[in-house]
Amino acid sequence: MPPANPGRSYLIVRVGAVLCGLPVDRIGKVVRALPVHAVPGSAAVLLGLSQLGGEPIGVLDLGRLLELGVTGTAEHGVTIVTRIGPPERTETVGLAADEALQIACFQLEEEARVGQSAVCAERAIGNRVVKLVDLTWFGNDAR
Description:
By secondary structure, the protein is an all-beta fold. It has a single domain (9-137), classed as CATH 2.40.50.180. It has 1 helix and 10 strands. It starts with 7 loop residues before the first strand and ends in a 10-residue tail after the last strand. 27% of the residues are buried.
């Protein structure tokens, strides 16, 4: 008998009133909100540039990146340092969110994507809906 599929672990974060699940295997670390320096003329999704361990890192607003219709507060609480993009060309970025809440495990079957976005599924935790994010979707020319 094949082993049972244990599912995939996600870091549950809050952006405004929306809960999102980011795959734990793509996350490098979660830190207090990094200070950012705005980049004039950049897209609204890019909050700015910061430094982490002496290296520059772009910090993106997770709510805007996912086109949730919400953004975090002006003072984001956390920055999630993660890799986005397909496996053959990932990029390390910071994702700004209001808070990191917990780790949860979800089983994912092959299913249709939720709209034309990086949200690959929705699951429940208690009475709240969590939007599970496929971070490989970003930078994928096939979408």
